[in-house]
Amino acid sequence: MSDTKLLFEPFNIGKITLKNRVGVAPMTRISATEEGFVTNKMVNYYGSFAEGGFGLIITEGTYIDDKYSQTYYDQPGIAFDEQAHEWKKVVDAVHSAGSKIFMQLQHTGPLSQGNRFANETVAPSSVQPKGEQLKFYLGEGPFRLPREITIEEIVDVKNSFVDAAKRAKSIGFDGIELHGANGYLLDAFLTEYTNQRNDEYGGTTENRVRLLVETIQDVRKAVGEDFTIGIRISQSKVNDYTYKWSGKEQDAKIIFGTLGKTSLDYIHVTEYKAWKPAFETGKDSLVVLAKEYSQLPIIANGQLEKPERASEIINNGHADIVTLGKGALANHDWVKKVQNGEPLEEFDPEKVLQPTAVIKDFEL
């Protein structure tokens, strides 16, 4: 067993202090009500991770408006004050067990499979998404061909992220995480083949990262300096699992370097295996590149459920926090078990009776 001491030491992220450096990754669930309200099952689910010792819990992606942001039916939302009020039950459950909780804010963009507010999808450009909808989340057949989002609608999207962040702060969340990964709207702007715009949001990598930067700036202005803001970044998509940035390390330098100049408190990097080289032509992982070019605290995600793997990426300074998906699902008390030297359960999807995560979806 490698030295896990640093893994279980406190860490400051933004203006808050985590009791350890182990978090629960955001994992898609469809256990809210049809109207997007939190259920008791969700309260128990999140609370159990806090009771199991995780220092940080990041919620599933949560839709932010009553327009085009919803991804799945029965996905929770924070588009209305009434939805936010119900989320407070989750916040209180996590806080009562001594852990911190961030809400992940999501706009689905081109990859919606179920939206009770709209029958069309929007994206940077009208490009047919690759692959097919995820049957695990009740999808079937190809994704819809999205409509190109207008400049006026881009402003609306930024405002929706702002309003959602303000609601999250008002009910006691310790921070928010912008979902800038996996092919959803912010990532679709970042991705060359889904972004074929010829305005200030398209073309160069500097232009394609612009919406992420503007959203961060607008949210920070609205919530103030004492509220933690992060962003999740990936190369792979839910519908294009092997995608890599064409500019390779130069793209990483631009993307992470640009994000590092904002008021972000952290970047959450997710890869299939967090420690593997990001590109065939290089030796550094995306986690290492994020740390080098952003100079921000980095959360690493990607098959780090083995204690020695999680400890190594912290001990060598590549990341500051790790988040677990499959490992957390199999062991809601992963932290306590590792600290006590107890054996860990292996992840068995057959034991996950309620839809919780698509393993292909997130590099857990």
Automatic annotation (TrEMBL):
UniProt GO molecular function: FMN binding; oxidoreductase activity
Gene3D superfamilies: Aldolase class I
Residues annotated as domain NADH:flavin oxidoreductase/NADH oxidase N-terminal: 7-344
Pfam families, A to Z: Oxidored_FMN (PF00724)
Domain of life per record: Bacteria
Keyword Cell cycle: no
PANTHER family noted in UniProt: BINDING OXIDOREDUCTASE, PUTATIVE (AFU_ORTHOLOGUE AFUA_2G08260)-RELATED
Name of the protein this chain belongs to: NADH:flavin oxidoreductase
Organism per entry: Peribacillus simplex
